[in-house]
Amino acid sequence: MTAPGRRSSTFTRLLRHGFTDPSAAERLLEGPELAPVRSDPVLLDALGATADPDLALLGLVRLVEAQDGHPAQRELLDTLIAAKPLRDRLLGVLGASAALADHLARHPHDWQALVTYEAKDLHPGVQEFERGLADATDPVSLRVAYRRCMLSIAARDVCGTTDLAQTAAELADLATATLRAALAIAKAAAPDDAALCRLAVIAMGKCGGHELNYVSDVDVIFVGEGVEGADEQKAVQAATRLASHMMRICSETTVEGSIWPVDANLRPEGRNGPLVRTLSSHLAYYQRWAKTWEFQALLKARPVAGDLELGEKYVATLSPLVWQAAERENFVADVQKMRRRVVENIPAAEIERELKLAPGGLRDVEFAVQLLQLVHGRADTSLRSGTTLDALEALAAGGYVGRADAVQLDDAYRFLRTMEHRIQLFRLRRTHLVPEDEADLRRIGRSLGLRADPVKELNREWKRHAAMVRRLHEKLFYRPLLDAVAQLAPVEARLSPGAARERLIALGYADPAAALRHLEALASGVSRKAAIQRTLLPVLLGWFADSADPDAGLLNFRKVSDALGKTPWYLRLLRDEGAAAENLARVLSAGRLAPDLLMRAPEAVALLGDGKSGGLEPRGRAHLEQEILAAVRRADGGEQAVTAARGVRRRELFRTAATDIVASYGTEETPAVADQGALVDLVGGAVSDLTAATLAGTLRAVVRDGWGDTLPTRFAVIGMGRFGGHELGYGSDADVLFVHEPREGVDEQEASRAANAVVSEMRRLLQLPSADPPLLIDADLRPEGKSGPLVRSLNSYEAYYRRWSLVWESQALLRAEVVAGDEDLGSRFIELVDPLRYPAEGLGEEAVREIRRLKARMETERLPRGADPTLHTKLGRGGLSDVEWTVQLIQLQHGWVEPGLRTTRTREALAAACAADLLSTEYAATLDEAWVLATRVRNAVMLVRGRAGDTFPSDGRELAAVGRYLGYDPGHVGDMLDDYRRTTRRARAVVDELFYGA
């Protein structure tokens, strides 16, 4: 006996051989079942070589116990010790799969399936598996025979006799043989149905691609035809009964469990469509109705059971359609959208453990390979393989994928698939989640040959391969384009000009010849700059392709690179700061405004980084005013001062536009901002603050240039309209009023001349031709409109408003806010107009009728001829004017008693009216949604076209760009217009009730 407190030598040996529970293992070894072999060192060495020695030993003891009597036990143990191939296979399976150990315990003679070790046994095909299943006559016996065949596949797999591709192919061949056996059982049960029809079973997915997992749905499509002389409808019904029975034979759970689900949901119309169709019905569907993903799925189609002649005819008939799929509009976008949708549907708690669907997982490799096959497979038939690794090899051989990239992806795919196999093999359950239990991770790591620290090594290798896939799968499309144009060194294969053109067209480039010229200019040569560009461009091209105008994105990038190519920080910024390159790609391909602003001062690219340059957060008014006033002080003369102020404005307009674009599109790390109202407020506030700061700087420059430190009259600028409401868009004019008050001792006429001179000079300077966008000042909301003086004194305003003020002027003054100049004077002006815009006791009935008449007249007279009233954002049904006039009427009626309504901002006033129960929450939400949407559309039009507009663009590419900005996927501009009409129609119904009292 072992002395108390001391471990036995067996215990120590078991630890050394990899057992995690040596005490339990020692008890099993001491049991009667293994008495004849317990002292043989061969057994312990063989157990120690398995993925889980504890599991393998337990499985062996159970198998020995299950044998029929002592002779059978002795035969098993003698063969185990004497025959190394059996020992490695049997113990390898027992150490990797608890499920197959359970099968062997239930069917103790099946271990003999592992004894044969001949050439034909090493790589069996469909015929060998059919022989293995030949005796199965019902679902139960079919399951037993299936597991017996799987036992031999698993044994070769865990022992390394077959590699991943061979194992996956064998599993697909076993599935083929199983489908045939199940169909034979179904036909035997319904001979009349079998005699009436021809039924072909088409394997899809991994089974069709000859790359099946241990446990996976087997995807199929059924094709049925009548035998000669049979009624087609009855024949299809008979084929449907046979197909349904065949599916149940494989899928239903029996005393021996199930085999796998047979999934026919890839058929036309999915689960809503008929299970079996004729070939002509299939063809009609794919010609008229099929979506891009359905052609992608057909890449894997392979006839496997039933009438193989009919199956081959099915594949031959549909194959031409598959290779035309890349010509479909938005083809690449559709495929990539489907990939994104898959990722978005992964539960957040599982995404870190997802081996198949998460970014960097198996699906990334498969989607990338299939996309390239569909783009180039029409012209190059060597690419038409349904097997991922074979297709990847063909793509590399043809130059469609860089060889180094292909090798890395092949290596990563093999590792991830093998890891998936080991996870599934343990319980024979369908899963793609990496387990969290350390014992499971240890078993998987050891099964992959990671023995020093299995858990740590497994996690490291998994993350390394996943990161590799994630990094490469987008670049895969673009690197060969650069190889084709860079011509740096001789390589075995490059994309031909035709293939490069094909790929660019598929990726959405309208002018592939120009795109190739840009790539050549950017990436050719041996300079360090060209080398960095070759690193950046594969990723940038993918981001450009994700926009509505990839050509513009690439052209703009070339322009910026030409302008900044010699500055040392530019390419370093894009290479080293994670956000900068993607932000730049989004900004350059989203429309004309942001690139135009950037081209005037390309150094503003620095704002797109995540470093110390200020980033994309718009600056506040105080900060902007401080910078502009400092620039004015440094300048020589008014023109130079205002040029500096306009330069700051240009830079900050770019910053705001870039922030808006990046937030609207989202990035790989950050999804698009969901709160559209927050983006509207951000843009409106930023542009309004910037306009106010620019006016303040211009005013200071004009006064300094003409009068030194002090103007003869106090002077203030009052923001009106959207400016006063902090709601300016990118293309908005600045609506203002100018007010002055003579300083003590200054003649009124002299003060008036000085004030008018200031206004004239401010307007001139802000509109001088230059590289910077002009700032137009609009003073038409002043008393008497265009007929009245540009500037009035405070007393003049008081006299006018006391005697002549009209109701529309009270309404316009709801937006009045001091934006520049003398703050005290501005505050007194606001005090002056408050009683007008918030009249005591509200508006009288006549005033309300007058506002309604004005609004109705504006709707009929000011809407441009030919404009669609359902799509005009300002004057159209449920647009900005409808919402704003409704809110302003509420303010005029109730502002005197509800302090929350005394705001110049539309959304704030709307929220305050809702809080005061002046309209329902539902009505407030409807109006707010319409106002935000209309504002977003106006901003989008300016960003896309580079000039202001109140309607959706008529140009298809511009309209698509507006859609992308608003969050619509390619090909869905119709949905965008429908949603706009629906939203504004609801808003107009609320306006009719609240404003017109209808």
List keywords for this structure.
disordered N terminus, 45 helices, 10 strands, 998 residues, five-stranded mixed β-sheet
Count of strand segments:
10
Distance between the termini: 101 Å
Structure classification: mainly alpha
User: Which blocks of ≥5 consecutive residues have pLDDT under 50?
Assistant: 1-6, 487-492
The Rg value, from CA coordinates, equals 38 Å
Estimate percent helicity: 55-70%
Overall geometry comes to elongated
Per DSSP, the total helix count is: 45
Mean pLDDT, all residues: 91
The proportion of strand residues reads: 5-15%
* Largest sheet, strands/sense/barrel: 5 strands, mixed
Quick summary:
With 998 residues, the protein is mainly α. It contains 45 helices and ten strands.
Write the topology of this structure:
Layout: H1 9-16, H2 22-30, H3 41-48, H4 53-66, H5 69-82, H6 84-96, H7 98-106, H8 119-122, H9 126-132, H10 139-158, H11 164-189, H12 191-196, E1 197-203, H13 205-208, E2 218-226, H14 232-251, E3 262-263, E4 276-277, H15 279-288, H16 292-298, E5 302-306, H17 308-322, H18 331-344, H19 362-376, H20 388-397, H21 403-427, H22 438-447, H23 454-475, H24 479-486, H25 497-506, H26 512-523, H27 528-545, H28 550-564, H29 568-576, H30 578-589, H31 593-600, H32 621-634, H33 638-665, H34 676-707, E6 713-719, H35 721-724, E7 734-742, H36 748-766, E8 777-778, E9 791-793, H37 794-803, H38 807-813, E10 817-821, H39 823-837, H40 845-861, H41 880-894, H42 906-915, H43 921-945, H44 956-965, H45 973-994
Parallel strand pairs: 2-3, 2-4, 7-8, 7-9
Antiparallel strand pairs: 1-2, 1-5, 6-7, 6-10
